[in-house]
Design brief:
Elements: E1 6-12, E2 23-26, E3 29-34, E4 45-49, H1 57-60, E5 64-66, E6 86-90, E7 94-98, E8 103-108, E9 114-118, E10 141-142, E11 149-156, E12 162-166, H2 172-179, E13 197-202, E14 213-218, E15 245-251, H3 260-274, H4 276-279, E16 283-288, H5 299-312, E17 316-319, H6 328-359, H7 376-381, E18 385-386, H8 388-392
Parallel strand pairs: 1-5, 4-6, 12-14, 12-15, 15-16, 16-17
Antiparallel strand pairs: 1-11, 2-3, 4-9, 7-8, 7-11, 10-18, 13-14
């Protein structure tokens, strides 16, 4: 399935059902009293978190979502049926923007989250509502409220625990393939990875029935100028924004003879140019392809000097080889412990942010005045009431 991380869709909530003007009847007694019921509410457009999804493909190929209208009120005071809600399932990490104003409306971040982006029009009122001691036979009714129409832009930022950042052919895909069940494309040429890959890393070494794991994402290789749109990585840098830990993958003995320390500086500078907070995100440096040290002149000494130089910069360093699978247990356990610590901070931050995020979905935040108001005087003044009473008003 093609990886899709951005798309635009049109949504429309349902119109509220009109109220009914009706009178009880019997043989030779045409008007025994009003019995017109209220209409039903229009259906809402609801975004639902779907942890089993990892792309926006479910909405890319159906770009129009319209909820059902409410049904008109019935006789004998019966209320019309409410319109069915339209539910849109999106992966965790989806941001929902108003395409017209570019305003962030909502973020889908936790399993089970449901956000009403466009609430349906409120029901209209039947003439039974207008009965009073001085107005026994009202023929007024209130029309149902119109629904809302919005064009939305959806952007997906993967919710991975660890994001791999490195130059092309640094060994990111190989590392993901040996740590998880993911099977990214691996080849000996640059830009083999054309789209982000996700894998679940399990700590099986801690016990056969151990459930400890974390999610790792392989981001397409970065090059100098990626933050300005060069190469492929710039299209996917957004996916590193939500990762708890960034693992910089550095080739210990690059074929082109480049300096691994300069490579690390390049990666950090590109992330900082894209978003300043990325460079300060908790991170580790994974020095890969250490098995080549035996075949290099002074390879062991150069590798030890590289590790010391990176450590002196304040980084936590892991020496591994994705091919020979050396150092992987220490890497997995180290990353897992860091993820657990970062997760506690993330959950605390999310708990403080989520009520605010949900508050964005109020009608006022969307610029809807009195949307959902059931007040009779409001219905009369805004032109949704019809009949003799409306004329008198």
């Amino acid at each position: 399935m093609k990886f899709i991380d951005s798309t635009e869709i049109f949504i429309a909530s349902g119109k509220g059902g009109n109220g009914l003007v009706s009178f009880k009847t019997a043989r030779n007694m045409p008007r025994l009293g009003p019995d017109g019921g209220d209409g039903g509410h229009g259906g809402d457009v609801v975004f639902v978190a779907a942890p089993q999804l990892n792309t926006l493909s479910t909405v890319r190929y159906k770009s129009r979502f319209v909820a059902e209208n409410g049904v008109r009120g019935g006789t004998s005071g019966k209320t019309g049926r409410c319109g069915e809600d339209t539910e849109i399932y999106v992966p965790l990490g989806t941001e929902i923007y108003d395409a017209t104003t570019s305003r962030l409306l909502c973020e889908i971040l936790v399993p089970g989250q449901r956000e009403v982006i466009a609430d349906g029009g409120r029901r209209g009122f039947g003439n039974l509502r207008f009965v009073s001691s001085t107005h026994q036979a009202p023929d007024e009714y209130v029309a149902g409220q119109d629904g809302r129409e919005l064009t939305l832009r959806l952007e997906l930022k993967l919710l991975a625990d660890v994001g791999l950042a490195g130059l092309p052919n640094a060994g990111k895909s190989t590392l993901l393939s040996v740590l998880s069940a993911a099977r990214p494309k691996i080849a000996d040429y640059p830009f083999t990875t054309l789209e982000p890959q996700l894998g679940v890393v399990e700590l099986k070494e801690r016990g056969e029935f151990n459930l400890q794991s974390f999610v790792m994402a392989d981001i397409p290789g970065l090059i100098e100028g990626a933050s300005e749109g060069k190469g492929l990585g710039h299209e996917f840098l957004r996916h590193l924004e939500r990762t708890k830990i960034i693992a910089y993958i550095v080739d210990s003995f690059p074929i082109d003879g480049s300096d691994p320390l300069q490579t690390l500086d390049l990666l950090r500078s590109e992330l900082a140019a894209y978003q300043e907070t990325l460079a300060s995100r908790e991170s580790v440096v994974v020095i890969n392809k250490c098995d080549l040290a035996d075949g290099e002149e002074d390879g062991t000494e150069r590798l030890a000097a590289l590790k010391k130089a990176v450590s002196d910069q304040g980084h936590r360093v892991f020496l591994i080889s994705g091919v020979s699978q050396s150092g992987l247990v220490e890497l997995k356990e180290g990353l897992f412990d860091m993820v657990q610590t970062a997760s506690r901070r993330f959950e605390a931050e999310l708990a403080s942010r989520l009520p605010v995020v949900k508050g964005l979905m109020s009608a006022a935040a969307l610029g809807i005045e009195n949307h959902g108001m059931l007040d009779f005087s409001t219905a009369l003044s805004d032109g949704r009431a019809f009949g003799t009473q409306a004329k008198r008003a």
